[in-house]
Design brief:
This protein folds into 4 domains: about 100 residues, Rossmann fold, CATH 3.40.50; about 90 residues, GMP Synthetase, Chain A, domain 3; about 100 residues, Orthogonal Bundle (Non-ribosomal Peptide Synthetase Peptidyl Carrier Protein, Chain A), CATH 1.10.1200.10; about 55 residues, no CATH class. The chain has about 475 residues and is α+β, with helices and mostly antiparallel strands. The protein is about 35% helix and about 20% strand. The longest helix is centred in the C-terminal third of the chain and has 32 residues. It has a 5-stranded mixed β-sheet. Strands 6, 7, 8, 9 and 10 form a 5-stranded antiparallel β-sheet that branches. A 3-stranded mixed β-sheet has the order 13-14-15.
Length: about 475
């Protein structure tokens, strides 16, 4: 919203990407260059992928970008350093923060250095916004102490449509002002800068998307499972822990894909006989086992004996992009723990090593090595034919090109030398009189004579 209406207010042009265009980094670079984009907003995970792509020496840097806004996730000082290496020294970098309930941006910080130990602050409130930090008892916290961030001001939303119960939980009145309880844990330093720490509840952020894991759990409970818990694993994966008998992982995945957005579909489903419980009878999330993304759990040894050369090349790319040493050719990359950012990396490698005509739609429609190999085979054949035709045409052109003659070139050089040296030699060896008549009122004629004396050349003139 700020990008669209901000551009309209300033008279700028908003460039819309094609479907799945943000997954195609080569396409992104073409748009940034051809359209001379001066401002863009992106989440940290996507910018890291872009920096990886721009590390290649043959890719141009972001020369037209004058301002970059980052938001949606915690921004590290290492990311800022990487961004500074791909933009010009005049480019401004901003760290934006704001939930959707506050009409997006609520605080902002201009990153003017990288002297932060770990994370970059989210800054101070924007004009007409107010920020306060409360502890679990609803009291203001001291400087440096963490607490929940509450935001008030012109951007506070009216409420959740048809969910007054949720609205009453997040909107509070403090000193006759309405504040929104973000659920984010933050702290404030002595300079008034706010630092993001994490979430207060089980709501998670994955690649800039704020996800309520309860929605995923409710979706899974509509199947025949007994219980489930969804948790975020590291920084890239959603893992669903499922309790039930006779549960098929593919059925659960298909059910989630039909009911949830793609970014909310778990990367892995872990089947358990019983979910671990604490003393109060609640699920103990700290005791949930770590998911196993190792090749042993996913690989099917039967498939390794019959792979085509193209599948072997794709398997090497999948192993590097999706961090799986021996990927099964029939297992989709999502089941290997692959994320959308890993898919961006794989797409770039496929274009670089196999075929340039691949797009994100083709990759997501054919997520396994075998499926993708079948889809790529005709494209690779066409590309090889075009390459062979180009090489043949170039060879014929080189054959028809006349070969330069060394003798002709030598004669030409000698003629040029004679052309310049012969007049000088002739003047030196001859005693010819050269006369130049000056046009003056007295009509005086001056004569010049070249005279050789003791091997030297002198000019004697007379009137």
């Amino acid at each position: 919203m700020p990008e669209i209406f901000g551009a309209l207010i300033l008279g700028a042009t908003t460039v819309m990407l094609r479907p799945n265009g943000n997954m195609d980094l080569m396409y992104i670079m073409k748009i940034l260059t051809d359209k001379q984009i001066s401002y863009m907003f992106a989440v940290p995970a996507w910018l890291n992928a872009l920096c990886d792509f721009l590390d290649k020496p043959q890719v141009a840097r972001l020369q037209s970008i004058r301002s970059i806004s980052i938001g949606g996730e915690t921004v590290s000082s290492k990311l800022i350093e990487r961004i500074k290496s791909i933009v010009t020294t005049d480019c401004l970098i901003w760290n934006d923060y704001g939930p959707a309930e506050m009409t997006i941006s609520s605080t902002c910080y201009r990153v003017d250095s990288i002297n932060y130990l770990d994370t970059v602050p989210i800054g101070r409130p924007l004009p007409n916004y107010r920020c306060i930090i409360h502890d679990e008892f609803g009291q203001p916290v001291a400087v440096g102490q963490q607490g929940e961030l509450l935001i008030g001001g012109v951007g506070v939303f009216a409420g959740y449509f048809g969910r007054d119960d949720l609205t009453s939980k997040v909107l509070v009145e403090i000193e006759d002002k309405i504040y929104y309880k973000t659920g984010d844990l933050v702290r404030m330093d002595r300079n008034g800068l706010i630092y993001y720490i994490g979430r207060k509840d089980h709501q998670v952020k994955l690649h800039g998307q704020q996800i309520e894991v309860g929605e995923i759990e409710q979706c899974l409970l509509r199947t025949h499972i007994a219980a489930c818990v969804v948790a975020k694993y590291r920084e890239d994966h959603l893992v669903a822990y499922v309790q039930g008998s006779g549960v098929n992982e593919n059925d659960l995945r298909s059910h989630c894909r039909s009911s949830l957005p793609p970014f909310m579909v778990p990367s892995m489903f872990v089947m358990l006989d019983h979910l671990p419980l604490n003393a109060n009878g609640k699920v103990d999330r700290k005791r949930l086992p770590a998911p196993d993304f190792s090749p042993v759990s996913n690989a099917d040894p039967v498939n390794f004996s019959v792979v085509t050369p193209l599948e072997e090349r794709l398997r090497g790319i999948f192993a590097e992009a999706f961090h799986n040493e021996i990927p099964d050719v029939n297992v989709p990359f999502g089941q290997m723990g692959g994320t959308s950012l890993d898919a961006i990396r794989a797409l770039s490698m496929i274009r670089e090593k196999i075929c340039t005509k691949v797009d994100a739609t083709l990759l997501f429609a054919n997520p396994s090595v075998r499926q993708l190999a079948l889809a790529l085979e005709p494209l690779v054949v066409v590309q090889e034919k075009l390459l062979a035709t180009s090489i043949t045409a170039k060879g014929q052109e080189d054959t028809n090109h006349p070969t330069p003659s060394l003798l002709i070139e030598a004669v030409g050089i000698m003629l040029l030398a004679v052309q310049w040296l012969f007049p000088m030699w002739l003047a030196y060896r001859s005693h010819v009189y050269f006369s130049v008549k000056e046009k003056s009122s007295t009509n005086v004629t001056i004569y010049f004579r070249g005279v050789t004396i003791d091997g030297g050349f002198y000019i004697v003139y007379g009137q």
